[in-house]
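Final report, closing paragraph on structural work. Over the funding period we assembled a curated collection of sequence-structure pairs, and we close with a single example.
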Amino acid sequence: MKILVTGTAGFIGFHLAKKLLERGDEVVGLDNINDYYDVNLKYVRLDELGIEKEKIEENKKIISKKYDNHSFYKIDLADKEAMENLFKIEKLDAVMHLAAQAGVRYSLENPHAYVQSNVAGFLNILEGCRNYNIKNLSYASSSSVYGLNESQPFKTTDKTEHPVSLYAATKKSNEMMAHTYAHLYGIQTTGLRFFTVYGPWGRPDMAPMLFTNAIMNDRPIKVFNNGEMSRDFTYIDDIVDGIIKVIDNPAQPNEKWNPKAPDISSSSAPYKLYNIGNNAPVALMEFIKTLEDALGKKAEKNFMPMQDGDVVSTYADVSELINDFGYKPDTNLKDGIKEFVKWYQKFYIKGKK
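Its predicted structure, as stored:
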């Protein structure tokens, strides 16, 4: 299968591309390599996929030196002409759209970046699928769409009309846009609501990396809401396993869908939403203790109030993903953190940076 994976310089996209390449799929990677966080990390991820930094040019196709089934484009999703040209050149079988302007808190500072990348960019993905007859589209949504909802575990049938960040609102808009194109053009769209992904090669703006950097450099960590928080931490390998199951099984119409009592996670169109998480929330203080144990060093903690745009707890009901595809997240926090710390020490302390 020839698959466009957007965001291959990013955390999840890098891991997904590597797994797809190793199983024999042809992967067309795409990323704009923006400077939201350290671009060096992005370039090293790409180098691991055989994409050489010095050969990367805007809107140009680069062939991997490591995988003969991998090519890469540096393109901004919001560049309509460049995106259309990519779809025209590449005869794709499927799209897994992971690229986005990430980060809940940054959306308070730079809202326009989110609309450009996450809304206009997603429209260009949808139009590419429509115009070049690509029926298999999967895309990243987010657990943040649950917003003010406090009914847990979060279910895809829950209402999501009360986001608390613009980032969440853009992800909710993606889900509605995907349904429109599924209904009008028969594009099989599957949205995955990700829950706090962590692991090797993770994002520097997320808690595992922020805490580890602070602890290793003798700085206090910021513990928001005075530590009274929990997250459904999900190891990267479990996430990639779920994504591949979805790519291999594109959405189908729900023959039992009732317009008088609509299930908002499916449709009479080929449209589906899934939560993808560990199905086991962990208290923030337990997470910090597990990280301290793996590092062999205690954290100095600066307890702070809740931040705007954040939520107290996330907890994924992944029963539909289990029932439909046999999805089984089986990496416990201790083992996952151990692998993350092993990578961190190799990459940041012993070697590459």
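The longest helix spans residues 111-131. The first strand starts at residue 2 and ends at 6. We thank the funder for supporting this effort.
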